[in-house]
C-alpha cells in the first residue's frame, strides 16, 4: 500500500521556511481548491542535483503571472528553497514538487485580495511507468478529452486545473488495461500524452507536434537539443492521426516520465529502435552528469 502523501516524515518548505511534513496544511476555503488557481512544477534530482532547476523556477514564475498573481520569492530564492528541501529530507535521487496557489482571504471567482503561497516538497519516486514496460514500450489509449484551444484556456501555464481532463483520460485508459492516453488538440491533431510530450521517428528524422496548445516541456526541449547535437533532423509540425501508421518509433518525454518508449497507441504499433534508445541513453548520461 502506498503511504499517503499527507502522513509522512520529513520537511516541506512552505511560505519562507521548513515545516514538519504533517503540518504543511492549507484551509478548506483556500481559493485554489475551489477555483483551480494553482500552478506547480515537477522536477527530478539526480545525485543530489536538481536537473535544470532554474528553468523550472522561471517557469513557475511565468505560470503564476499567466494566472494573474505574483510570487514574492525570486527565482533564486525558489532555487535555494528547493535545494534546502532536498537536503533537509536527506535525498539525493528524488522528485521535487513546488506548488503555488491563491490563499483563503477571499471566496468567489474574484481573488484580488488573496495572498500568494508557495510550498516545496520532495520524496523518493522511481520510474513514472513500470520499468519493464517502459523498456519494451508502453501502451496508450486515445483520450476522450482534447487539449483546449489556446484562446480558451491558459495553455502555456503549468496550471493544476488543466490536468483535470488528464486525470479523467488516464483513469479511463488504465481501466481498459492501457498505461496512459494520447490526447488530440481541439482540432483533432496529435498533441501529447496526459503528462508528457510525444515524439515520433520515421526514416531517421524526428517528428513532434508544435507546442502551441500544451507546455513546451523542459525535457522536450532537452531531448530536441540532444537529437540536434547528433545531427538528427527534428521537425516540429502539425501531425494528424492518419499519419501515425507511417511512423516507426514513438516515445514520450517529461521530468517524471524521462524518456519512455511507446509500442502502441490505439490501433497503431511502434517498435523502440536504435535512435530512440540512443536518445534515452544520451538523456540518462546528461542528467547523471556522465
What does this structure look like?
With 290 residues, this protein is of the alpha+beta class. The chain folds into two domains: 11-123, Aminotransferase class 4, branched-chain amino acid transferase, N-terminal domain (D-amino Acid Aminotransferase, Chain A, domain 1, 2-Layer Sandwich), CATH 3.30.470.10; 131-287, Alpha-Beta Barrel (D-amino Acid Aminotransferase, Chain A, domain 2). It is 27% helix and 27% strand. It has seven helices and 16 strands. The strands form two sheets. Strands 8, 9, 10, 11, 12, 13, 14, 15 and 16 form a nine-stranded mixed sheet that branches. Strands 1, 2, 3, 4, 5, 6 and 7 form a seven-stranded antiparallel sheet that branches. Helix 5 (164-175) links the parallel strand 8 and strand 9. The longest helix is centred in the first third of the chain and has 14 residues, at 53-66. The model has no long low-confidence stretch (mean pLDDT 96).
What's the short story on this structure?
The protein contains 7 helices and 16 strands.
Strand runs, count: 16
Helix percent band: 25-40%
Query: Helix/strand-derived class?
Result: alpha+beta
Number of helices: 7
Give the uncertain stretches in residue-range form.
Answer: none
Distance between the termini: 35 Å
What would you say the CATH architecture of the largest domain is?
Answer: Alpha-Beta Barrel
The CATH superfamily of the largest domain is D-amino Acid Aminotransferase, subunit A, domain 2
Bin the strand percentage: 25-35%
**Which CATH class of the largest domain?**
Alpha Beta
Order of helices and strands: EEHEEEHHEEHEHEEEEHEEEEH
Amino acid at each position: 500500500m502506498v503511504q499517503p502523501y499527507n502522513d509522512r516524515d520529513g520537511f516541506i518548505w512552505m511560505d519562507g521556511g521548513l515545516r514538519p511534513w504533517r503540518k504543511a496544511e492549507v484551509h478548506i476555503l483556500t481559493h485554489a481548491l475551489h477555483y483551480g488557481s494553482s500552478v506547480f512544477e515537477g522536477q527530478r534530482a539526480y545525485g543530489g542535483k536538481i536537473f535544470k532547476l532554474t528553468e523550472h523556477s522561471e517557469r513557475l514564475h511565468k505560470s503564476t503571472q499567466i494566472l494573474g498573481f505574483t510570487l514574492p520569492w525570486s527565482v533564486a530564492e525558489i532555487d535555494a528553497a528547493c535545494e534546502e528541501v532536498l537536503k533537509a529530507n536527506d535525498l539525493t535521487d528524488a522528485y521535487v514538487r513546488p506548488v503555488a496557489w491563491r490563499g483563503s482571504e477571499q471566496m468567489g471567482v474574484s481573488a484580488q485580495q488573496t495572498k500568494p503561497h508557495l510550498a516545496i516538497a520532495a520524496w523518493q519516486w522511481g520510474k513514472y511507468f513500470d520499468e519493464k514496460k517502459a523498456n519494451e514500450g508502453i501502451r496508450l489509449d486515445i483520450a476522450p478529452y482534447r487539449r483546449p484551444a489556446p484562446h480558451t484556456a491558459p495553455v502555456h501555464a503549468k496550471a493544476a486545473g488543466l490536468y483535470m481532463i488528464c486525470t479523467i483520460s488516464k483513469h479511463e485508459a488504465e481501466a481498459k488495461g492501457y498505461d496512459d492516453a494520447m490526447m488530440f488538440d481541439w482540432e483533432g491533431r496529435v498533441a501529447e500524452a496526459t503528462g508528457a510530450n510525444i515524439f515520433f521517428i520515421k526514416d531517421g528524422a524526428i517528428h513532434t507536434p508544435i507546442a502551441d496548445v500544451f507546455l513546451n516541456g523542459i525535457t522536450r526541449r532537452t531531448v530536441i537539443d540532444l537529437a540536434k547535437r547528433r545531427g538528427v533532423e527534428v521537425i516540429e509540425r502539425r501531425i494528424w492521426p492518419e499519419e501515425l501508421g507511417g511512423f516507426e518509433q514513438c516515445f514520450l518525454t517529461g521530468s517524471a516520465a524521462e524518456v519512455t518508449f511507446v509500442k502502441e497507441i490505439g490501433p497503431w504499433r511502434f517498435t523502440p529502435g536504435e535512435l530512440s534508445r540512443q536518445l534515452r541513453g544520451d538523456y540518462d548520461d546528461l542528467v547523471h552528469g556522465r
